[in-house]
């Protein structure tokens, strides 16, 4: 049926994606590549086909080729957000965050009301240590879309870490949690907001949930240890604080956990 759909509409990205998915399911990656390349030859201006090809190339660990293909998709269609996402992801993986930021800046300039792009720019700037610039992007994203979950989550966490207004941070963290109800990150941020408000029971439940999904996150382990310490449960506090240190010994979370351990005696 999907092959018939593609014959009927040679530009059907959905039909090609479905056929490629079936090829991968049957463990025929070469067939998938051949199929996509054949369709690109028929419809060379369809950026969606290049997106599919780039994803296949990524799966095959051909990162340079995938980046070139994603670049081709962006050249063919500057409005192809998926191509920008693939290209930026590849650049970031290769340690070239500047190129990733450049791609999203170009997209954002062409789509000034796209809050998601601004949130991504914020995360990229934050990963480079540019905290104030990251916050500017998060605030711009939230001005456009007050419910943008990534911007709300990351701005809330930065406020909690930097002595910002806890009530505002809590409200932002609640917004993020509604938008990302299954995210360990949103659970951790909201928990830390509750911790900052002294609502330790809610914080503990959220952190326990977050750790089930991401047990090797040192920061979450540290946060849970601090919550247990506030609740007077020293044995559980020690377990999670030590876990934070063992997971990431040279990080701020480990340093804070070590200080907290010494405070417990």
Oligomer: single chain
Main beta sheet strand tally, sense and closure: none
Q: Which overall shape is indicated by the principal axes computed on the Cα atoms? A: elongated
From the N-terminal CA to the C-terminal CA, the straight-line distance is 68 Å
Descriptive account of the structure:
The chain has 265 residues and is an all-alpha fold. 79% of the residues lie in helices and 0% in strands. The chain has helices spanning 2-8, 13-25, 29-42, 47-59, 63-76, 81-93, 97-110, 115-127, 131-144, 149-161, 166-179, 184-197, 200-213, 218-230, 234-247, 252-264. Helix 1 (2-8) packs antiparallel against helix 2, helix 14 packs antiparallel against helix 15 and helix 14 (218-230) packs parallel to helix 16 (252-264). The longest helix is centred in the N-terminal third of the chain and has 14 residues, at 29-42.
Q: Helices, strands, pairings?
A:
Elements: H1 2-8, H2 13-25, H3 29-42, H4 47-59, H5 63-76, H6 81-93, H7 97-110, H8 115-127, H9 131-144, H10 149-161, H11 166-179, H12 184-197, H13 200-213, H14 218-230, H15 234-247, H16 252-264
Summarize the model shown.
With 265 residues, the chain is mainly alpha-helical. The chain is 79% helix and 0% strand. The model has no long low-confidence stretch (mean pLDDT 92).
Name the features.
265 residues; mainly alpha; 0% strand
